[in-house]
């Protein structure tokens, strides 16, 4: 087996592993009991797609997928921070407006 | 030689990403799930980006890879800290006994 064949084999196995990781992360995104669980699953899926971009750049030899990975890292961080702050603010707002308002707004979710 | 090293790095990185996903699915609590996803996911992405820098090998690609790795190392703890703080403040019943301060 030549080194190039070995790299092709590793890239194929890596694609399969990353797609399995993405599917498992999607299961947790669908199940996750609380909002924070879903945010963690979404964060993990963003990192998984960054890994996919890296493996695809190895596969094609095209450096432009590195730019995709950088932008995904930026957007994933912003989305995680925004969703975490949203969860905290929503809890504080429901607590400040009282249990009656909280249950009424909770029915809308 | 570079191909073999890059292939091993790709395999290790994809394996760590898969371990992070399995940890997210199997662990009982949000804090333990974050423990799996933040550390193993970051290490997996760093290994795969190192493999890409080895294969492509030009100077701008290596510089951008180092910048991406530094950004991931900087932002992953911040994001995990914010999710953990939101969870500790909002959730009433953890899955098992945790001391509350």
UniProtKB/TrEMBL annotation, chain A:
Protein family (similarity comment): Belongs to the CPA3 antiporters (TC 2.A.63) subunit F family.
PANTHER family referenced in this protein's UniProt entry, alphabetically: NA(+)/H(+) ANTIPORTER SUBUNIT F1, NA(+)_H(+) ANTIPORTER SUBUNIT F
Subcellular location: Cell membrane
Protein name in UniProt: PH regulation protein F
Domain of life where this protein originates: Bacteria
Membrane topology: Multi-pass membrane protein
Ribosomal protein found in the keyword field: no
InterPro entries: MrpF/PhaF-like
Transmembrane segments: 6-27, 39-59, 65-87
Pfam families, sorted: MrpF_PhaF
A cellular component term, taken from the record's GO annotations: plasma membrane
Lineage, broadest ranks: Bacteria, Pseudomonadati, Pseudomonadota, Alphaproteobacteria, Rhodobacterales
GO MF annotation list: sodium:proton antiporter activity
ATP-binding in keyword set: no
Keywords recorded for this protein, A-Z: Cell membrane, Membrane, Transmembrane, Transmembrane helix, Transport
From TrEMBL, chain B:
GO molecular function, one term: sodium:proton antiporter activity
InterPro entries tied to this protein: PhaG_MnhG_YufB
Signal sequence coordinates: none
Keyword terms of this UniProt record: Membrane, Transmembrane, Transmembrane helix
Segments traversing the membrane: 6-28, 40-59, 65-84
NCBIfam families referenced in this protein's UniProt entry, alphabetically: CPA3_mnhG_phaG, PRK12674.1-2
Listed name of the protein: Sodium:proton antiporter
Natural source organism: Rhodobaculum claviforme
């Amino acid at each position: 087996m030549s080194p190039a064949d070995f790299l092709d084999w590793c890239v194929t196995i890596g694609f399969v592993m990353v797609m399995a990781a993405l599917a498992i992360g999607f299961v947790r995104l669908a199940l996750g009991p609380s909002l924070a669980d879903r945010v963690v699953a979404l964060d993990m899926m963003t990192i998984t797609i960054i890994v996919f971009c890296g493996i695809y750049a190895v596969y094609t030899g095209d450096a432009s997928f590195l730019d995709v990975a950088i932008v995904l890292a930026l957007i994933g961080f912003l989305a995680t921070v925004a969703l975490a702050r949203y969860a905290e603010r929503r809890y504080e707002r429901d607590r400040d407006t009282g249990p009656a308002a909280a249950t009424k707004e909770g029915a809308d979710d | 030689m570079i191909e073999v090293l890059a292939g091993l790095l790709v395999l290790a990185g994809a394996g760590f990403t898969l371990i992070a996903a399995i940890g997210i699915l199997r662990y009982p609590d949000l804090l333990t799930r974050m423990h799996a996803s933040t550390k193993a996911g970051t290490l997996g992405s760093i290994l795969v980006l190192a493999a890409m820098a080895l294969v492509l090998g030009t100077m701008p690609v290596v510089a951008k890879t180092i910048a991406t790795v530094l950004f991931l190392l900087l932002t992953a703890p911040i994001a995990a800290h914010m999710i953990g703080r939101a969870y500790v403040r909002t959730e009433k019943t953890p899955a098992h006994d945790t001391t509350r301060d």
